[in-house]
Amino acid sequence: MKLEPIYSEILAVRIIPNVDPMLAEQFDLKNEHRSLAIFTVTMDDIGVTALDEATKRADVEAVYAESFYAGADVASGPLSGEFIGVLAGPNPDEVKSGMDVVEKVIESEAYFEAINQEKTHSLFAHVISRTGSFLSKEAGIEQGESLAYLIAPPLEATYAIDAALKASGVELACFYGPPTETNFGGALLTGSQAACTAAADAFRQAVVDIAENPTSY
User: Fold this and answer.
1) How far apart are CA 7 and CA 49, in angstroms?
2) Pseudo-torsion of CA 115, 42, 191, 178, nearest 10°?
3) DSSP per position, 147-178
4) Are strands 83-89 and 61-67 parallel, antiparallel or unpaired?
5) What is the bridge-based pairing of β-strands 112-114 and 83-89?
6) Which residue range or ranges hold the BMC circularly permuted domain (predicted)?
7) Residue (of 50, 41, 46, 38) closest to 9 by Cα position
8) Which of 68, 125, 150, 168 lies at a 20 to 30 A Cα distance from 31?
9) Cα gap 87→148, rounded to integer Å
10) Going by DSSP bridges, is the β-strand pair 146-152/171-176 parallel, antiparallel, or unpaired?
């Protein structure tokens, strides 16, 4: 079964070239971090993936990453979406470079997959071949290792994580027990790139199987 990609959308972006010291303190910024890039996006896990990728391709760190409760459908405003992310860097050019990476990832590299025609049922099974600083810290692994980033609705995620763990030589690095802020569930699994790919494939297939036969056990 071929699943159709669901791409996220950046809703708002702002650069702070020289952040006020009192605000910098709230983000616990390093002394060399003077500039911020702030963005909101319609899908939180895509935003997280984009933040992590930016830390690999620009001289920036992800200093804030928060999902909004219940998701984009009940957002606080038209530009809120489902997630807010903040990158910090030494100057405006670096945080702009980081935002360029964020935009590229969101527009073409990371996406959810629709399980039904209405696109109301979806999953995220994304393999990161080499982690940046943000997801490495989240997963408790060395930077540059591989991850399978797996997200689905609550029951589907729980069942499919078990299938993913059994499919290949991966370890459970982080469990997002349902419900998350956006009412999904998921995990970060670590291992070789091949193992993470096999785990993502098994996760995807398990979620699809549930969608096709939801009450058959």
Assistant:
1) 13
2) -70
3) EEEEEE-HHHHHHHHHHHHHHSS-EEEEEEPS
4) antiparallel
5) unpaired
6) 113-217
7) 41
8) 68
9) 23
10) unpaired
